[in-house]
Amino acid sequence: MKDFEFPFKQLKIRKGEGGKEAWDCVRKKWVSLSPEEFVRQQAILFLAENMGFPLERMSVEKQILVNERKRRPDLVLYDRMFSVLLVAEFKSPEIPISQAVLDQAAIYHLDLNPMYILISNGVQTAICKKNDSGKWLWLSSFPDLNAPLSLN
Predict the structure, then answer these.
(1) Which alpha helices (DSSP H) does 6-129 contain, by range?
(2) Tens digit of pLDDT for each residue in 96-151?
(3) 15 vs 33: CA distance, rounded Å
(4) Cβ proximity of 57 and 82 under 8 Å
């Protein structure tokens, strides 16, 4: 597993009735700023600002069914044809990135069939890609998610 660090971004934050809130530019609304939400918002800004990934092709906590159970992936990125490209699972910084976190994110594979899985707690970030035989391999560098996909 290769660790990546998101460059710190300044979030739009306000004091809400229940505590601090951050502006979610994907959902276009203010959300409670939990430690996990902070990590998600940092990742969204990194993907949009540093990687040039369009906000319009991101989805946050959209409900899906996996084995007839309702699930909500933390973040889903779609390719240009709006097929699922990446599923991300975020944790609070005090929760270590582990195989269990990857397994939690990989469960979405059953329904969404992403090419990449990203897991992060804000301190550690790792990404893996499914190879041709269906195995998940840790990547040593962050892929260009805007690159045209191969038809092979």
Answers:
(1) 35-45, 99-106, 109-112
(2) 888 888 887 888 777 788 899 999 998 888 899 988 888 888 888 888 888 765 44
(3) 10
(4) yes
Closest CA to 112 of 55, 65, 54: 65
Indicate which CATH number applies to the domain containing 95.
3.90.1570
Q: Which amino acid is at 62?
A: K
**Is the residue at 146 inside a domain?**
no
Backbone angles phi, psi at 141, to 5 degrees: -150, 160
**What pTM value is reported for the model?**
0.86
Structural domain count, the chain = 1
Q: Which residues of 132-152 are buried (b: 16+ CB within 10 A; e: fewer)?
A: eeeeeeebeebeebeeeeeee
Supply the range of the domain harboring residue 53.
13-138
Distance separating alpha carbons of residues 119 and 92, to the nearest angstrom: 11
